[in-house]
Every structure is written in structure tokens, then in C-alpha cells.
Design a protein that fits this description.
heterodimer; A: 304 residues; mainly alpha; MetI-like fold; two-stranded antiparallel sheet; 14 helices; 2 strands; 1% strand; disordered N terminus; B: 387 residues; alpha/beta; D-Maltodextrin-Binding Protein, domain 2; 2 domains; eight-stranded mixed β-sheet; five-stranded mixed β-sheet; 13 helices; 15 strands; globular
């Protein structure tokens, strides 16, 4: 009996199922296994991301027949020539970069003390509450928050009510209004990476520094700052790139001003000039590419 | 090596895709109209401004599509669009039998051959349409009618009665003397707004010889752009979303600028605003329903065109949207003051409206010695003005 059943098991091993065969092949070929595993995300990345960027680049060389509105494929540099020679585009590009830099500086300055308090001073319970309250606004729609700021900044809004008694006034719908709103919108994205890099700074380093006679400012400058710099840069990548691509906030609270995103939007929606829109859209892509290359050395990209 | 090969493949693939998508050929104007109607098809696909074909799904009490479906057997699918340019690109897909287009889009659709001329004898209700809306630049080309009117309205001048004193009677309050209200002036955010400046110049700078604000040669466009760039210094914000405009006038962030009657009607009385038709007249719009050249359901499309100009349906549709109806009889079915509020059929009012028309290279005012600036040039100019 025992022998019989053993022979039965043996015969089953000789005739493996289809799934068995596949797993045997995969087991013996680790490279194939890896390729199959990665193929889905790679195809997605390739088609959705890289092909889209390439399509953007190629479309930027097309032109549009101004009468019929049809696309004319080809290789024309007209879009890039006007991009570089027309003062409109350089003015808007500079304005956009200016807002992005301003928003980033404000956000980093606000985020540093908040993140420091969360990481080093607050009790674990309070820390949890603070993390939740920082993440909370991210659950509300971007549009709702921008429109809320529209009423905050308005002539009869909270800013006007608070500032008029002390002789100041609301910034209103202007570049500074847009800067404040964008700073508010991206603040959580800046706090979180700085907070997580501050958390990694060992407390005994701070104690050692103070034992060796360093004052608070010296400790911050020589110990904390170099250690959290990658976190700050990681946060700045978020606020900088998100501001660079924005066109909705500036429309809602920015008054009559336009940013690069608005030029892309009007070229797609109003002018029906997709090639010009593609050419303009490459400007923030190039700026971000330069920025990322510059910060790669700080190790910030490992902190994203 | 493998990666670069993949990238190459993707690049080639995307080029091929783009080349294919760019291949739609441009055909010329369609001049063949239907001679007779057949039996109605089962469905009809419509494209229009939001609120132009309500079937009760947004508001159960607002429904003029269901009676049409019951009467004709044509099942309606309606797609709303946000801008005239979006309308054109959607319509070019060929999925739609009929479109409600404003004058800044109609000529482009006619020129590209996407719409067919209409046999108005097959649209009995067309007889009831106001004569002043028939055979105009934006719906008629070479004697052929391509669109039946839906409704019309003017771009009025609105001001805050507490701040803007004395009460303005001219557009100069937003142009030459706008600096008095610096930062609180508004204007419509579209290249077609250049026509508002051109209309102002037409009345105040006769040496420019502008006879039609939609037919501007290079010099005339440059003059309008200069005027608008000066205005830009005083503009608080431009509007294209009418809800945004309502809010600005309510909070006082905006005190003077262009508006629509429907915005004025939506403002609370506490906002202290007034909307007027200034002495120069105003730009405005008259929307037209047009039938696609390659309509799959031409009979149902004609049935819809006839229905939308019937007094009941026209009253319901234009009152819901907030514009003057296209037929006099609609006033019998609308609420009591509706036609008076919107100046429906008032010829003195209507005479002063310059309806939105697509600017094209062949001057609309009949000049043949110069080329006029087209919509693409206006769009570029508008971006420069905003800066």
C-alpha cells in the first residue's frame, strides 16, 4: 500500500500542471522573472509618461493653419523663435519663476519652525494631532481652497477686516494674493519632508553640540541645517514645481495677471494652437529639469 | 541599448499617431441644402452652450427636451461645451447632428464645410423669428442661411452706483477715464473683447475709419491694442466665469465693467449695481443652431431646429439661460417681465448691438484693398494685452 501510494505521488510529479511548468521556468530563469514583473510598470511609464513628453516635444514643432484650425505636422521652428524673441513669453516666464521662488521661500520659512516643533518638542500624542491637522487640508479640493481664499482676500474679507484698523489693506486679487494662496496650498508638501528629515536627526547630536559649548544658533547652523538640507530641498521641489505649473489659482485670486500655465491654457482653449501650447509647456519642464539636476547632488531626491 | 531602442520605438509610434491625427483634410464650404425631409430617425445628437437643451436631469422643472422627444420620436443626446473653440473641435469629430454656435464660431464652421446650408422652408417656425436676426454676417454666407437663431443679448456696462459717480453713459468710464477706478475695472476675458475697444474707437476716433468692429486692418487692430493695454493698467481682473463676476461686484472688488443681463439679475439688491447700454452701443451675441454636413440624423436635426424656434420652447430655453428670445411669440409664454428686462424685440436696443462675428482675413466690412486681421491675430494680441 505504502509503495503504491508512493508510486501515485511519483506519477503526479511526472505530469505537472501548466501553472507548475510556468513556475519551474520562472524559477530557473530569474532574469525573465524580473522582466515580467517590471513589464507592466515600465510599459505604463513608457507610454503614459515618456511618450507623452515626446509627443509634447514633437508637437511643439508643428504649426496650425490659422483659417481651418487644422494641425500641420512638420518641422518648423516658428514656435520656438517667438518663444525666445517675443517679450510676452520672457516676461511671463520671469514672473512665473519669481512667484515660484517667492512661494518656495515663504513655505520653507514657515515649515522650518513647524517641523522642528513637531519633530523635537511636541509629545508623541501632540505630534500625531499636528500631522493629522497638516494633512487635513489635503482632503479638501484644491478649487474649494482657492475660492475660499478669494473671499478671504476680497474687499470685505477677513484680511481687510483685520488689517484696515492698523492702516494696512488686503493684498486683494494680485500677484501677492496669488503668492499667499499658493503658499498656503503647498505648505503641507514642504512641512512633511522637512519634518521627516528632522526626525532622523539624533537628539544626542544636539546634546553633544551643546555640551561642547555651542549656542542654539551655532547648533542649528552647523549640525541641524546640513543634516536637514536634503529635506528642505525636497520640500522646495514640491512647492517650486507645483507653482510653476499652476494656472487656476492665479485665475481665481491673481487679478489680471497671467502665468505660463495660463498661456498654455489659452493656446489650447482659446487660440486652438496646440503646437504653441506644447512649446510653452516645455519651458517649465526645462526649468524643472535644470533645478532637479542642480539639487541631485544634495541627496534631496532620496528624500522625496 | 535596449532602452534607447524602446525610446526610439515609442518616438516613432507617437510621431505616427500624431501624423494620423493631423491628417484631417480641409474641405470647402458646403452649398447643397436639403430639398425635402424624410421620416425622423430614432436619435439626434446636439452640441450647445450649457443650458441650451435641458431634459430635466439638472432641474426636474426645467425640461423642454422631453416634449420634443415625445412629439418627434427623436431621442436627444446633448453635450454642453465651455468655449467656442472647444465647440469647434468637438464638432469636427463628426459625432454631432446639430450645434448651437455663437457668432465667433459660426463662420469658421461654415468655411471649413462642417455645416450645411438650411432650407428654411422646411423649418416652419423660422417665419416667427425676428427679422433683424435673419440673414446676418454670422449666419448667412453668399445668400445661404446656415443657422437659425436661438436667442441674443448685449454685453452691457455695469457699475456700482455708490462708487461710480456721476452715472456713466459712455464706455469711456472703462477706457479713457478708467484710471479713476484703478484696480476695480473688469473686462471680458476673450480675444473677442478687442471688438469692444474697436467699437469705442469707431465712435471716438473717426480718423481710424473703423466701420465694423470685427473688420480691423493692422493699423486699426494696433490702435485697439494700445487702448486695451492702457485699460490693462486699471483692470482688477478679467472675467469669463460669470459666477466670478457676480462675486466681484458683490464684494466691491470690481465696480465697473462689461456684464451680461443675467449677471445683473443674479446680483443681490444690496450690491447697488446698474447695467446700461452706453451711448456708443455695445457688442453682443446671437447664437445659431446649425446642422452638420455629415449629420447622421438630418431629419431629427431639422425637427429640433424647428422646435427650438417654437414660442414655448424658445421662451423656456432663453429664459433659463438669461438672454432675449429669437421669436416675438416667445414673450407670451415667458414670465411677465422677461421680455422687457432683456429688451426682446426692441429695435432701438437691437440696432446698437454689434453681434460677435469671427474676424476673418477677408474684411467683413467689404473692403478689398486690405487684409483684415483674423481670429488667430486677435488671440495673440489678447495675450500681449494681458502681458
Amino acid at each position: 500500500m505504502a509503495l503504491n501510494s508512493g508510486a501515485k505521488v511519483g506519477s503526479e510529479e511526472i505530469r505537472p500542471t501548466f501553472a507548475h511548468r510556468i513556475s519551474t521556468v520562472l524559477y530557473s530563469k530569474p532574469k525573465l522573472r524580473l522582466r515580467l514583473l517590471l513589464s507592466a510598470p515600465v510599459i505604463w511609464l513608457g507610454l503614459v509618461y515618456i511618450a507623452a513628453l515626446l509627443a509634447l516635444l514633437i508637437t511643439a514643432f508643428y504649426t496650425v493653419d490659422s483659417f481651418t484650425g487644422n494641425l500641420q505636422p512638420g518641422f518648423a521652428l516658428t514656435n520656438f523663435i517667438s518663444l525666445f524673441t517675443d517679450s510676452l513669453y520672457s516676461a511671463v516666464t520671469l514672473r512665473t519663476i519669481g512667484i515660484a521662488v517667492g512661494v518656495t521661500i515663504i513655505d520653507v520659512l514657515l515649515a522650518l519652525p513647524i517641523a522642528f516643533f513637531m519633530a523635537k518638542i511636541a509629545s508623541p500624542k501632540l505630534r500625531g494631532v499636528l500631522v493629522i491637522s497638516i494633512l487635513m487640508p489635503l482632503w479638501a479640493s484644491y478649487l474649494v481652497k482657492a475660492y475660499a481664499w478669494r473671499s478671504v482676500l476680497s474687499n470685505v474679507g477677513i484680511f481687510a477686516w483685520l488689517l484696515r484698523p492698523i492702516g494696512l489693506d488686503t493684498p486683494g486679487y494680485s500677484l501677492s494674493g496669488a503668492g499667499i494662496t499658493l503658499g498656503y496650498l503647498w505648505l503641507p508638501y514642504v512641512i512633511l519632508p522637512i519634518y521627516s528629515s528632522l526626525e532622523k536627526v539624533p537628539n544626542n547630536l544636539l546634546e553633544a553640540s551643546s555640551d561642547l559649548g555651542s549656542k542654539t544658533w551655532g547648533t542649528i547652523r552647523r549640525i541641524v541645517f546640513p543634516l536637514i538640507l536634503p529635506g528642505i530641498v525636497a520640500g522646495s521641489i514640491f512647492s517650486f514645481s507645483l507653482t510653476l505649473g499652476d494656472y487656476i489659482t492665479i485665475n481665481i485670486v491673481g487679478g489680471a495677471n497671467q502665468m505660463l500655465g495660463n498661456l498654455v491654457y489659452t493656446n489650447v482653449g482659446v487660440a486652438n494652437n496646440l503646437p504653441m501650447a506644447a512649446a510653452i509647456a516645455l519651458v517649465p519642464v526645462i526649468i524643472m529639469f535644470g533645478y532637479l539636476t542642480a539639487v541631485r547632488k544634495t541627496g534631496a531626491l532620496d528624500n522625496l | 541599448m535596449r532602452i534607447s531602442a524602446t525610446v526610439k520605438l515609442l518616438a516613432v509610434g507617437s510621431v505616427a499617431l500624431l501624423a494620423l491625427s493631423g491628417c484631417s483634410s480641409s474641405s470647402s464650404t458646403n452649398t447643397t441644402k436639403l430639398q425635402s425631409l424624410g421620416t425622423n430617425e430614432k436619435t439626434v445628437s446636439l452640441l450647445g452652450w450649457p443650458g441650451y437643451a435641458e431634459d430635466g436631469s439638472n432641474d426636474p422643472n426645467t425640461d423642454w427636451v422631453t416634449p420634443f422627444e415625445t412629439a418627434t420620436g427623436c431621442q436627444v443626446t446633448f453635450k454642453p461645451y465651455g468655449t467656442s473653440d472647444e465647440a469647434i473641435s468637438l464638432f469636427k469629430t463628426g459625432d454631432y447632428d446639430a450645434i448651437a454656435a455663437s457668432g465667433d464660431a459660426t463662420l469658421r464652421l461654415i468655411a471649413s464645410g462642417d455645416v450645411q446650408p438650411l432650407n428654411t422652408d422646411l423649418i416652419p417656425n423660422y417665419a416667427g423669428v425676428y427679422d433683424f436676426l435673419k440673414n446676418r454676417d454670422w449666419n448667412t454666407v453668399n445668400g445661404l442661411t446656415y443657422g437659425v437663431p436661438h436667442g441674443y443679448g448685449a454685453n452691457l456696462l455695469m457699475y456700482n452706483t455708490d462708487v461710480v459717480k456721476p452715472a456713466p453713459t459712455s464706455w469711456n468710464v472703462v477706457f479713457d477715464s478708467a484710471s479713476k477706478y484703478k484696480g476695480k475695472v473688469t473686462a471680458y476675458d476673450s480675444p473677442i473683447y478687442i471688438a469692444d475697444a474697436a467699437l469705442y474707437l469707431m465712435k471716438h476716433n473717426p480718423e481710424l475709419n473703423i466701420t465694423n468692429p470685427y473688420a480691423l486692418d493692422e493699423t486699426q487692430l494696433a490702435a485697439a491694442v494700445t487702448l486695451l493695454k492702457a485699460q490693462r493698467q486699471n483692470v482688477g481682473e478679467y472675467w469669463s466665469d460669470y459666477l466670478k463676476s457676480i462675486q466681484s461686484f458683490t464684494t466691491g472688488n470690481t465696480v465697473v465693467g462689461t456684464t451680461w443681463q443675467v449677471i445683473k439679475n443674479s446680483l443681490p439688491a444690496t450690491a447697488h449695481t446698474k447695467a446700461i447700454l452706453p451711448s456708443e452701443g455695445a457688442t453682443g451675441w446671437s447664437d445659431s443652431w446649425m446642422v452638420a454636413s455629415k449629420a447622421k440624423s438630418p431629419n431629427c436635426a431639422y425637427a429640433w431646429l424647428n422646435y427650438i424656434d417654437s414660442p414655448q420652447a424658445n421662451a423656456a430655453a432663453t429664459e433659463y439661460f438669461g438672454e432675449a428670445p429669437a421669436t416675438a411669440d416667445a414673450c407670451k409664454y415667458a414670465s411677465k417681465d422677461f421680455c422687457a428686462t432683456y429688451n426682446a424685440g426692441d429695435l432701438n436696443f437691437e440696432k446698437q448691438i454689434w453681434y460677435w462675428t469671427t474676424p476673418v482675413a477677408n474684411c467683413l466690412d467689404g473692403r478689398t484693398d486690405v487684409k483684415c486681421t483674423d481670429y488667430a491675430a486677435w488671440t495673440k494680441a489678447w495675450q500681449d494685452i494681458k502681458g
